[in-house]
Please model this.
Amino acid sequence: MVILGVSQQYLESSIFPLARGLKHHEVQLFSLEIMDSTRGEFIEEKLCELANVVGCPVQIISDHGSDIEKGIKLFIQKYTSVIYTYDVTHAMALLLKHELETSEKYQSFIQKCSQCRHQLQQIELSFLSPPSQRSQCRYFNVEKLIDWAQKLLNCPIETLFKLAQTDEPEILNKILITKFGWLKDYQEEIFIWGQMVLMTRTLEAQLKQNGINQESMTEFELNEFSLFSNQTLVFQQNIIEYITTEIDKIPEGRTILATSDIIESIFGKYKHFSSRCPLKQIGQMILSISLCTMNLTTSVVKQALEDIRYIDLKDWASRVFGQSMLSKRKIVFSTSVDDIEFA
Model:
């Protein structure tokens, strides 16, 4: 479990005036520990312990994961002044998921995209392949497929002839119709889906740059979207309901964070580092999370090398993680000296 923090004063003086997001070294690591269970009661206990050390938080932002959310709500029952904010990135992805996951047309569209990608792998038009689809969190990146379809539908045929470098345009035209003609069946829906994505990304950019406050609704409504169907009208209303719910919690004149992207980014960096390990397990590499939040100057590195002994780090890792999987594997599969045969 990782808890990051940043002061409200720093946000108001250095982040919101510049209309930008937080950087890794601008947040402080408040908690980093291995938990055997993520039950809400355990999350609440950790939050209470932290509040006793650093004080009651102004705001908590999370992705509404069930266990985390339960723990936060239990915590807020004791600290009623805390503002609990639903991260805008996850909120918008969930709205898209609810809209598209139950759409037979959209599910058919992504299946066609997958088939098309497979068919184009070994031919001269492979540069037109749809982007690969993620097996998880695909609704965070739904715009990639929609953007691909929109641009391909709008691309002049002359450009495709030129890029394919062919002297037989009639044959190429037949191949294009065979491989991409199915997109015409989804043209209207692709435009509607594109408008939905545009709404979510517009709100995300607004709240991530400016924070969220009582003026956020007015700012969002200044955007003009193409709402020519009941589907897009209802979807826009769902976005407005999210904004209304969140700003109702915020005192007049205060601007707060609307996203937990910073913790997602740091976890992504940790996953990148830990992917180099031979076996997948949680181990010493979690300390890279704390390094992400530090400004590693020469003096900081020097002090760390002088103050922290490797033997202490090794002892800590042994107590927290026990014997590593790689160590156990070496014991079982290492070659015995008695088994060595000499030529």
